[in-house]
Amino acid sequence: MAQNETVVTAISKISDRPLNLDAALVVIYGLDLGRKHDLKQPEVTIGRSSKADICVDQEAVSRNHAQITNSKKGVRIKDLGSTNGTFVNDELVEGERHLRNGDLVKIGRTIFKYIAGGNIEAAYHDEIYRLTTMDGLTQVHNRRYFDEQIDRELSRSRRYERVLSLVMMDIDYFKQINDEHGHLAGDYVLKQLASTVRTKIRREDVFARYGGEEFAIILPEIDLKGAKLLSEKVRQLIAKQHFSFDKNHIPVTVSVGVATLQPQHREAADLVRAADAKLYDAKTGGRNRVCC
Question: Do 162 and 251 contact (CB within 8 A), yes or no?
């Protein structure tokens, strides 16, 4: 060998090495709530078929719906020509899409949260805790959190002699929306409505999905007049909002009941019943209105 000859030793490029990425999907809405699916295989299929690696047994899910690949290029998802499409953060997947920590993957009516990183078990336990307070579909608080917070706010209101109001809101003719446009459209309406209302409330207010198509807003230190004013703004905003699913326009309105804490309300349930009674008045009085 010549004295000045350069010796080159071939080493693998860093970019060619596998990521060895710990990744998983956690069910945050739908059947098997809280279940974790590890993405350790190079390819993972999702579908209605019993042979799928992640089986989602729903009519809105195709037999072979989507596929996730975990490789040196990262974790990616692609739709396999499903009937109803695959969505990441409410965007339709066309071709392939790279998944990032925290992304929400919707297959049929099931929503998965993608988690990845060095301590995936810690991230999983954090997500399970979050599921105890949040509704996976609408990403607002759930009934359990509402029940805890209204008890807390009632005690606080009594202690400091401050007003407390409650708004109960129900989507008009929601069953008809599901019957005419399908449950996927109904899920879309619930999520969009929640997103719309969230822009109109204060940080200290508690907005929750009370159950089904019914929502509630706890308004600390807001009197009846203020609660009615907010409710009317929300009602008008929803009525003007353009809800469109699968290229079909869906008219959406809400009926709203408002009540303020009174001396005769001994428990939080009494305030809820008062707001519910006003909600009933709004629905029987023609819907798409606020009663207080």
Answer: no
